Amino acid sequence: MSVPSQEKPPIKVGVVGFGMSARVFHCPLIASNPNYELAAVVERHGEKSKIKYPQVKVVRSIDDLLAMADIELVVVTTPNDTHVPYARQALLAGKHCIVEKPFAVTEAEARDLARTSAETGKVLSVFQNRRWDGDFLTIKQLIANNALGSVVEIESRFDRFRVFKKDNAWREVDDFPGSGVLYDLGAHLFDQIVDLFGTPTYVTGTVRNERQIAGAPDDSFLVILDYPTQNFKAVCRAGMLVRDKPARFTVLGSRGTFTKHNLDVQEDQLKSGITPNDPEYGKDKPSQFGTIDSEIYPGVHARGTITTADGDYPAYYNNIANAIRGEAELVVTPDQAADVIRIIELAKQSSAERRSLSF
Predict the structure, then answer these.
(1) H or E stretch covering 76
(2) CA–CA separation, 285 vs 302, rounded Å?
(3) Which of 22, 31, 63, 290 is the most exposed place for a label (fewest CB within 10 A)?
(4) CA 24, CA 212: separation in Å to the nearest integer?
(5) What CA–CA distances, in Å, run from 38 to 14, 23, 73, 153, 206?
(6) pLDDT in tens, 61-105
């Protein structure tokens, strides 16, 4: 899936942190991509990264990493409150930078970071890998082919079932910056809709702590992104008390409906050790294909399954390499990332004030 950019020397990468995000997503995607060399990992304690990647140099701080002159790209995978300061530090040190989502905790921080990227001339992006989920790519194909007619609504859900709070998990501490399901999952769901339709006109949110766990942040949200001039709305939902999972996507159009259950396969594949170099990587199971019921052409009514497009997280890193080398425009831009943070903040405000807000 990954092709070297005109056989140029690989871009040397330093990853900040070696938690789940780095272990499951970034390091395997970097290590399997010939455009890159995984050169260094920041671990405050231990050297767990060297077990899987013995070639890496382990350093103890971001300062140590930025002092390495050969590092071109820094990937920040540490907790949310470090994303902006670490990314700014990397940019000012002359490094390109990828930030794990969410891009920032506030829109103001996000816009300021985008300006720093422009001023330094360094590539800055947020890891919105779910733009390359197979189900989302399938929806983009259906829309591009007008298979559903004019799309009027998308319901996008990311649900789990867990009645307890994880121990020592900063994402589930109420007063930790950027904690909660809205920042964790909303960042993905809103980004996908913005990628398809741009920024909404209005945002209406309901953000709740449904499990009523003391000291825990929000664990559920319902956010409507309204586009009246396009006759479209997106209903984005996530919750932790959803045992029987509804559809991941439901897309309603003037000629028909597309429905897709189950999550994209790539995360589970990466967790199990399957890499993008495996021929089965990114391929959905036929039993999990989505269904369509639509007049796909005038007078031609189709009802059945739609083969899921192959998921392609490596495409994100391919684009970053090409953008660094000046061979392509950046796909996931800092301004788009800041727009997503604005939606998150508006959803919180809307929920608190019980009213719709203009974007």
Answers:
(1) strand 73-76
(2) 21
(3) 63
(4) 30
(5) 7, 12, 10, 41, 41
(6) 999 999 999 999 999 999 999 999 999 999 999 999 999 999 999
